[in-house]
Amino acid sequence: MKIDDFLKQDTEWLKGTGPMSHIVISSRVRVARNIEKLPFSQRADKYRLEEILTAVTDAAASVPLLKNSLSVRLKDVGDVDRLFLVERHLMSPEHAKDVEYKSLIVEPKEIISIMVNEEDHLRIQVLQSGFNLRETWHILDELDNELARRLPFAYSPKWGYLTACPTNTGTGLRGSVMLHLPALVFTGQIEKVLQATGKLGLNIRGLYGEGSEATGNFFQVSNLVSLGRTEDEVIDNIERIIGQIVAREEMTRKNILSRSKEALVDRVWRAYGTMKNAHIITSNETIALLSAIRLGVDLGIVKNLDRRTINELFLITQPAHLQKIEGKALTSNERDIKRADLIRTKLK
Amino acid sequence: MKIDDFLKQDTEWLKGTGPMSHIVISSRVRVARNIEKLPFSQRADKYRLEEILTAVTDAAASVPLLKNSLSVRLKDVGDVDRLFLVERHLMSPEHAKDVEYKSLIVEPKEIISIMVNEEDHLRIQVLQSGFNLRETWHILDELDNELARRLPFAYSPKWGYLTACPTNTGTGLRGSVMLHLPALVFTGQIEKVLQATGKLGLNIRGLYGEGSEATGNFFQVSNLVSLGRTEDEVIDNIERIIGQIVAREEMTRKNILSRSKEALVDRVWRAYGTMKNAHIITSNETIALLSAIRLGVDLGIVKNLDRRTINELFLITQPAHLQKIEGKALTSNERDIKRADLIRTKLK
Questions:
Q1: Other CB atoms closer than 10 Å to residue B94's CB: what's the count?
Q2: pTM for this one?
Q3: Residue B262 and residue A278: Cβ atoms within 8 Å?
């Protein structure tokens, strides 16, 4: 598998399938693992870092679940390609910086990826469309077992898995779900929901992880603590709370439809009209408009468009994707024009 | 001719034909006339007001140019119909108020109209599409001569025609031109142009005459003074100054096309996309969007739409027109929905 091969396929987190996919975009579970007797990546010298890279790469190469994976040293990958991998949610924005001793492994369907020498030696991620945390966790668990047979993970009977940052110690597990909550935003209920979710031990962020703002009504919800609970308990807790948020978004959508349908229809179709006709458009405006159009599709207001096209537009209108499609570096202004071109072509 | 008959035809000022019609919407000339030995309308009692009404109605009835005209007492006309006549620029907003002793005569093509007992006994207006002041004046002059043969107009060899307000004394003539100046607005040059025009003795207003703001880049330019000059001199002066504004708008459009075409194209098509897809839309937004689309048509950016459709939309999306089309009174919110419906149907 090569990086360019991904350009030809849908990325998993935007497939638009799976349970509750009208509200839940994707489910992600990741664990943090470190190899025992080796220093954490941030404290390791270059020889140790190379040792970690080699050990993980070799171990992964023989895991059946990872057959035909992309496996690359990030120092061998250009800036645009690195951003491209971030845009596909295959690695964190942090992993794209200071890349000398970092690598990335991505399974061909883009469901599994492993960051090597990010904050921990291994960050193993499984990503699926829709509200699917449990199955996602099972895949990850199986993979983790396979890797544990090949790599001695640092583990304390008292603390559980040892990690570079203590917030990950214990199960080392973080489950997160990407939600599309336009109705809660539209009616101003989102603040309350976010506060309540925070009090229940979950963390809410924007589209691209820590520190990023929620754009276009997309929210990424994950657990804060991974210590003192079993993996199943962590997953259970997220599933239960997310279930409540999803129910509230659904109810609110119905309320809007019965109380102010005309305003909603207006909003959705204006977004569609702008997308279909703009000749210059930024990333942020695109996400905001796609959010409105997606709601229109989910509620049956827009019928001549499917969720797949919307999801494809989310993906390919991102800066690195645009540049890979165009086959060359583009300035911000050039991207805004190219983005509008691409959207008009896709919506024709 | 009945008021409803007008609904089936284009109104003259929005025909979109005539010289320079890519920038000059319409040309209008009006004169103020009063019948001698009768008090001005605002000082006349009801017997005198009736006398004026009868005299003008009888005189107009025998003028060939006014054959088959609509001739109505405004007290016999409903609110919506009065607003409808204002929206078609056949009478002033002021003429629609306190209507007890007022009437209106409109020639079938809507080129000529006469307000009776507005500020003066007669306000005779001739309106044509495009930049056509001289021909417009000739029609008015001919009509004025015909009427003068039937009605003794108050005239002083020293002052000229006597009028209720001294600003109209002399020729009693006001020439005005409706301009579409999006490029001058877009580039911020409009303030300078307006100031210069003001210093040259012309007055600039919005779409609906005195006190109205310029909406959607439309400006109505007219002379301030009608005393101490011949009619031809007044017309000459307006034509010359308007010619300069038109030339500047044209040059600026060319500059924009060569320097920031993409931004202009974006603006035009976004306006089109919004118009074509909105489900709720106000009058003001409609005028602003139509202004952008008209510029797009004038510059060959929008090819699948003609100026006639745009002009029709200008006309029929106005509040009274919407209500006449719908055949019943509509609230402001209902109009915003109906307006969007109508626009979507016309642009399909």
A1: 16
A2: 0.89
A3: no
